[in-house]
Amino acid sequence: MDITPTATVETPAGTAAGPGPGAARAARWLLGGALLWGVLLRLRLAFTDDGIYWPDEIYQGLEPAHRLVFGYGLVAWEFVQGARSWLFPGFVAALMKLAVLLGLDSPRGYLGLIRTCFVGIAAATAWATYKLGRSNGASPLAAAAGAAAFSLSAPAIYFAHRAMAEVASALPAAIGLWLALERGAARRRILGGSALLGLSAVLRLQNGILCAGLLVALAARRRFREALWALGALAGMAALYGLLDRLTWGGWFHSALVYLQFNLVEGGAARWGTSSAGYYLRCLFTSMPALFAALVVLVPLSARRAGALLAICAAFLALHSLVPHKELRFLFPALPLLFALAGCGLDAAARRIPLGVAAGALVACAALSALTLRSLTFGDLGQYLDARPGAPALDDMGPVNRLLLRAGGAPDLCGLEVEAVHLAWTGGETYLHRPVPLYPHTGPRRDSHRFNYAVTRPAWAGGGEVVATDDALALVRFPWGCVPDPTYDWRLP
């Protein structure tokens, strides 16, 4: 891990100086320790949390990937109408196929490998946060403290192992801004960084704000030739995006056009709830109070060193705040930027407070945030605020998914109905992993004999046999075979 200086750093007295060997060693140990601790915390969740934050976690990545690899799976409306690019599900499918080639062809096997890879992406994003801070003038110790704060922040840990485009896109966004936004960057760094920013926008269209921010920043610095290079790289990535849609959906930029029509023109996302403009600031506070207070102090102090990055980050937050439907995960690609800015702010704060003290205070706030991970509620994360804000955010719907795993191993399974919850809040065929009908609670009656297993409540077992329980739910087996259902539809209801 490189902690050598990449930019001239001002001392509190205002003179240029590089870091001493002691500060460089401290930065190395701090960054390495925080990355290791962050990885261990994320891995623990990856292998103990079977819950779901929001249905997109399954039906925008894992389930279409399962359909690509194994030939069956539930289909969300986005993959009926073509509102999503196949790039992200294709990436997840490649990981799933790798798991199969390694002999990990069960749900526990391929989910374990996919989650581990996403934990690796999260660790690389923390490292990129350090590099982004350094390229914007932060000293090694300050940049390492900012990266440590990202690595140990509760929201960053909570989302890390989840197969979501927001999580995957944060890494190329952070690396892209590090390479392309650095003052005096060579052409190949600008081209590479811009291409990575374009990739992040293909993974999540809203990251186009970061791409536009880069172009504006280069133009504001009167680096017009570099801005043209960046524009060319971004245009190239856009062309590849359009080509992928042409090959998969039959039309250039089909997924982007359908997605924008649904969200911007029709306002379709509002059906899942709307929030006030202050939603994201409130969620950052409730999900990591001490760290949020540190960010409020440190991020504005970065204006002198990292004005362009600060403006890009502010625009990302402001524009997301204007959209009626909000979820904290939408802000995930901006988290590395915020913590890199906090690192830059530490050096400015060192004019009044010793840098080691300020950095230690920021890392202490991050450690406290990590310790509160297990107590996070959906209310803390800004989710389900009108329905169940006090519900634990970890392992939500985990019992349903573990019972699906158990049902998938039953040799006589020929159909299953989930009666306890809406089918969208389950792991689908990704967890069941059997090419049999999977019915919602509004599906056929039991006496239709379309299914012989159900995930339900023990009191609703009726004439069935309870073969497994998990928390307040049960897997019930009924004493009959299944009547074939020629009208079964794999579309998610």
Brief summary of the model shown:
The protein has 19 helices and five strands. With 493 residues, the protein is mostly helical. Helix 19 links the parallel strand 1 and strand 2.
What this model shows, in words?
The chain is built from 19 helices and 5 strands. It has 493 residues and is mainly alpha-helical. The protein has 2 domains: 21-48 and 82-375, no CATH class; 398-477, no CATH class. Helix 19 (428-432) links the parallel strand 1 and strand 2. It starts with 20 loop residues before the first helix and ends in a 16-residue tail after the last strand.
Mean of residue pLDDT values: 94
Number of helices: 19
The biggest sheet, with number of strands, parallel, antiparallel or mixed sense and barrel status, is: 5 strands, mixed
Backbone shape: globular
Termini gap:
48 Å
Helix content: 55-70%
Question: Topology as H/E string?
Answer: HHHHHHHHHHHHHHHHHHEHEEEE
Poorly predicted runs = 1-18
Question: Based on the structure, what is the oligomeric state of the protein chains?
Answer: single chain
